[in-house]
Amino acid sequence: MKRSLVWILLLASCAVSVIAFWNRLSLVRLGSEGPPPEEPKTEIRVALYDWTQNLEVRNAVESYNETNTDQIEIVMMDIPSDAYNDTLNMLMTSGKAPDVFGVDPAWLPAYVNKNYLLNLTPSLDRSFLERFPSWAVEMAKKPLFKGGIYFLTSGVETVRLIYNKNLFRQAGLDPEKPPATFEEMELAARRIAAAGIGVKKYGFALPAGDSQHSFQIDLEASSTFSGITLYNFRTGQYDLSGYKPWLNMVSRMKAEGSLYPGESLLNRDMALRQFADGNIGMMYVTSGDYVKLQQYEPKEEWAAVMPPAARKERGAGALMMLPQSQLVVNASAQNAEKAVKVWKFLHSAAFQSVLFRQALIFPVIDRTRESSELAPGFSRFKEFYPTEADAVYPLFPQIMDQYDPNTVATGPRNSGDRPRMQLYLKIITGEKPPDQALQEETDRLNELLAIATTGNSFKREDYIIPGFDPLHPLSKLSQ
């Protein structure tokens, strides 16, 4: 009995040794193979209109890439801002567009009708929508967007006139009383130029080298403060006649020598640099231009104020605020689910706070402006804060540019905007008489509307607001 017990213990010991050996062998094999490979990251290509080069924006994106648990890698596409819209339209038609990108609000209906964009409605719950102001949600739900939600406005820019107080003093003008009307602005420009003879000082700058950007801001957006709009929402017709006083004013500045020379080649960056150097008395800017102006370190005292109006009765309309380039998701994104997650990250309070702290945008969600502090050096961004006189406007009709991706040409073959911008410049240079030119362009735009109405995707009634109030542009939006 004793001997049997010894044998049993010996056999049990051997069994334990064999099991341990095989376990060690298995561990060695597993160790030699290494841990199972991680799921490869999915690249989501993102294009932003003009924030790409900002260091803090890049840092926020890099942080997201390092910390997100969805194996997403955001790849930023670098598209020059001065050719952004043209380049984006070409990429869309060629099938090489980014997965998530900013698009000019005017192009949104055309992009939706062409099925370029992903309907985000299934991905948006009530708590997400409640972060946005009601007007932003109402705008996104308009019938012209086919009943879906393809974007949500999360930020805006304001339009202001900046002026050099020192040049005002030298011209005998009160630096605390900026021009309130076109007449006062023309007079101030004339006196600044006269006081600066021999030292190359000019009263006003029009950076028409960026014609689409400048004229749409300097002329069309600023004119809304005078109750003048490119498109009449009540009648559903274009009417450019209201722009004649502004164009005549700038034409006289050019003839008198108070307009900064070479306006057709002058771009916005160069104009901002010249303003910072103290060579320009006045120019229109958006809040988005503030960062660039700060980079150029203005040498003299300046201020930002509401732009002049056509008449002394200022405030005949709300001053148009510019919605940021609307962020959307490409309907052809390789991984729509992950693209939507990136879209939501770009609308997060954390990312929007970065944009505000860097003075890039005024967020309208999550009370971000109230809960965030501007980065050091950007305190004067407060002069551009939206006021009760600023407002977002409904979308104007826009006829989609036609591109041929197989051609070498990078520009649009037929554009609804570019001919208008070129026309404004020709009026200022005296190549076209204003009355005739503005009427011809009005007729051309209304003809394009009539042609578009014959198609299946464009409904003119979507752009008509019978009770439109220029002082409260979005008040009838839900009707």
Q: How does this structure look, described?
A:
The chain has 17 helices and 14 strands. By secondary structure, the chain is an alpha/beta fold. It has 2 domains: 42-155 and 323-405, Periplasmic binding protein-like II (D-Maltodextrin-Binding Protein, domain 2, 3-Layer(aba) Sandwich); 159-321, Periplasmic binding protein-like II (D-Maltodextrin-Binding Protein, domain 2). Strands 2-1-3-12 form a 4-stranded mixed sheet. β1 (42-47), α2 and β2 form a beta-alpha-beta unit. Residues 25-32 and 400-414 have low confidence and may be disordered.
CATH class of the largest domain: Alpha Beta
What CATH calls the topology of the largest domain is D-Maltodextrin-Binding Protein, domain 2
Number of domains as seen in the coordinates: 2
Say how many strands there are.
Answer: 14
**CATH homolog superfamily of the largest domain:** Periplasmic binding protein-like II
Average pLDDT score: 86
In terms of DSSP E residues, the strand content is 5-15%
Strand order of the largest sheet: 2-1-3-12
Helical amount = 25-40%
- What class do helices, strands and sheet pairing give? alpha/beta
Strand count, sense and barrel status of the largest sheet are:
4 strands, mixed
Principal-axes geometry comes out as globular
Low-confidence runs (pLDDT<50, min 5 residues)?
A: 25-32, 400-414
Looking at the overall shape, the CATH architecture of the largest domain is 3-Layer(aba) Sandwich
